[in-house]
Amino acid sequence: MRSPAANAELALLLEVAGTPKPGNVDRHRDLAGLRFEHFLAGAVGARPGLADAESGAPVGEAFERAVAGMSDQSGGNTQFGCLLLLTPLVRAAAERGLTPESVTYVVEHTTVADAAGFYRAFDHVDVAVPDLPDDADALDVRRGSDAVPELESRGLTLYDVMAESAPADGNAVEWTSGFPRTFAAADRIESGDGSILDRAADAFLFLLADEPDSLVAGQHGPETAREVSERARELLDAPRADVAAFADDLVARGVNPGTTADITSAALFVALERGVSV
Predict the structure, then answer these.
(1) pLDDT tens per residue, range 8-35
(2) DSSP string for residues in the chain
(3) What's the whole-model pTM score?
């Protein structure tokens, strides 16, 4: 039987291997400078931090170590958002059993030190956020570890930081609302047909159809995010070739629903913990 940390590593590998996954790297598609093998290496590199979360290390410390390990490949940021979701899920699975209530307990009991670990993680890899403006808030995540003194002076926990980021950030919404989309997509994976990779791709499309991707909205505007989500909704029961064509179109346009991929990896982890076989 795999440990929670092993299931989290496997979830990262399954997520990137599922195809077609519109706009994202999968086993048939690369992006400019970011390739399938970078995600494989990122998943392996993240394992020590995930093991720390399983062993009871503070969430922020485990997350920073996972990100540092993930970044040990030449592609750059592969799974930062995935790890932000997976770290508390692994901790909950190891300590209390994996439920919305158990992961809510974990995130609500994070500390200022956990928030500092989150900010320090930005020092390890470039995350897809715009350049830091001159008038940016002292707690802008793009400041990385430079923001830690201000964070400590305000006494903000990592849960507080996530609460301030929602609803504009889909991952922060998961953190502060009991991971509802994660568990809903896990239910779909469990009840689905076909290989786990086919079900991973299906879960991705289901999530993209359900709600506009917050990364797409941040990078390309809310109208593009809505258009992508509407097209995904039209393709939920479409032939695989049509979904593949949509995937190719988004890659060509540089539209990357990265938050959707993050939640897909979290859903795969929940499904694996519940006993879905591979």
Answers:
(1) 999 999 999 999 999 999 999 999 899 9
(2) ---HHHHHHHHHHHHHH-S--TTS-BTTB-BTTB-HHHHHHHHHHHHHHHHHHHHT--HHHHHHHHHHHHT-STT--SSHHHHHHHHHHHHHHHHT-SSHHHHHHHHHT--HHHHHHHHHHTTTS--S-PPPPTT--TT-GGGGGGGHHHHHHHT--HHHHHHHHTTTSHHHHHHHHT-HHHHHHHHHHHH--S-HHHHHHHHHHHHHHHS--HHHHHHH-HHHHHHHHHHHHHTTTS-HHHHHHHHHHHHHHT---HHHHHHHHHHHHHHHHTT---
(3) 0.96
